[in-house]
Design brief:
CATH architecture: Sandwich
CATH class: Mainly Beta
Strand content: over 45%
Low-confidence stretches: none
Number of helices: 1
Strand order of the largest sheet: 1-2-3-10-5-8
Number of domains: 1
Shape: globular
CATH superfamily: Jelly Rolls
Mean pLDDT: 90
Structural class: mainly beta
Helix content: under 10%
C-alpha cells in the first residue's frame, strides 16, 4: 500500500540546547512502517546530532541542504548537499551544523531495525 506523507504536517520538535530540531516522517503511526523509521533534522550553527550505535540496526544519513562537519572516530570531514553516510550495526557518528555563519544543515536520517 502506498501512503502519502505530508512532511510539512509532521510534528516538529526542538530537541534541546544545541541539538537542533527534528520531525519523524516515517514510522508505524504515520504509514504503518514496522522495521524503519525516518526523520528530518535541522542543525543550526554549532548544533550537533549524535547517531547512536544500534546493535542490530542500520542507519543512513543524507545531507540535503547546508553544510557542516561529520565526525567519524577521531577525524572530521566537511559535508554538504549530497553527502551520505551508511552506519552498520554498532556504528555511530556525530554530525555538526555550520560553524559560525551559514544557513542550517538539513539532513534525512533513516533507521532500519529487524523485529
Amino acid at each position: 500500500m502506498i501512503t502519502f506523507i505530508d512532511t510539512g504536517a509532521c510534528e516538529w520538535k526542538t530537541l534541546g540546547e544545541g541539538l537542533g530540531e527534528a520531525a519523524e516522517v516515517v514510522n508505524r503511526s504515520l504509514c504503518g512502517a514496522k522495521q524503519i523509521r525516518a526523520s528530518l533534522r535541522w542543525l543550526g550553527a554549532e548544533e550537533r546530532f549524535e547517531a547512536e550505535p544500534l546493535s542490530g540496526g542500520h542507519q543512513l544519513i543524507y545531507v540535503m541542504e547546508g553544510s557542516g562537519t561529520v565526525v567519524l572516530g577521531e577525524k572530521e570531514y566537511e559535508v554538504g548537499p549530497g553527502a551520505g553516510l551508511y552506519l552498520g550495526p554498532g556504528e555511530g557518528e556525530a554530525l555538526r551544523g555550520p560553524d559560525g555563519w551559514g544557513g542550517p544543515l538539513k539532513a534525512f536520517h533513516l533507521i532500519g531495525e529487524p523485529q
